[in-house]
Amino acid sequence: MTDGLIRVVVWRNLLLKGTDYCALWRTKEGWLLKGTVAGVLEDHRPVLANYEIHCDENWLTHRAEVERSIGSEVKHLSLSVEKRGVWHSSGQTMQQIEGCHDVDLALTPATNTLPIRRLNLQVGSKQAVSAAWVKFPDLTVQPLPQHYTRLSESMYRYESNTGFQAEIEVDSLGLVVSYPGGWERIAVL
To answer: Where does residue 62 fall: left (phi above 0), alpha (psi -120 to 50 degrees), or beta otherwise?
Structure first.
């Protein structure tokens, strides 16, 4: 497969009353998910965020970048991870998320693609993963144990240790089509 743009999707963000434009790219290193989220926070302030997630051939996260703007307040988060699961941000080791395989950006369903593609589960199989969960809009990071169960060719059950669960519909590339209560795809190219 050659480098280049693979697919573009736009999700309606039901949580932020906005949209998420996401492009999936094939790169020399593996995969890139790059997107822009625009919406409205619970306190009615407009918010804009840009994100990039760089992965290897096997969908293991190498680097994640998020920049979030609320008016003139801009916050940036840069995460990188070594193969042995040691995460860094701004040159500092982040011991609290050591051993996490995936990054989970709360602002987008794009990051559900990472474990879905990496695990490549058979229908009926369930797998536990540990993700570096980036909360939104504060961009704080904490570990979040999760489970993915493949229910059919295009359906997965996502569960986190917070008690949250959802049945997620995905397309042939593992990109979310429908995430009840969170996102729904409204355009694809």
So the answer is: alpha
Closest C-alpha among 101, 121, 120 to residue 111: 101
Long-range contacts of 55-58 (CB under 8 A, 24+ apart): 55/29, 55/30, 55/31, 55/114, 56/29, 56/30, 56/31, 57/29, 57/30, 57/31, 58/30, 58/118
Rounded Cα gap, residues 75 and 85, in angstroms: 25
Contact 55, 31 (CB under 8 A): yes
**CA distances from residue 175 to 16, 53, 93, 98, 139 in whole angstroms, order as listed:** 19, 14, 30, 26, 23
DSSP state of 122: P
CA-to-CA distance for 115 and 174, rounded, in angstroms? Answer: 9
d(CA 63, CA 45) in angstroms, rounded, equals 29
CB-CB contact of 85 with 58 (8 Å): no
Single pTM value for the model: 0.95
Q: Which of 71, 51, 50, 74 is nearest to 63 (CA)?
A: 51
The predicted-structure confidence for 75-91, as pLDDT tens digits, reads as follows 999 999 997 889 999 88
Q: Omega of the bond prior to 145 within 30 degrees of 0, cis?
A: no
Mind listing the pLDDT tens digit for each residue in 101-131?
999 999 999 999 999 999 999 999 999 999 9
What is the rounded CA–CA span in Å between residue 149 and residue 157? 5
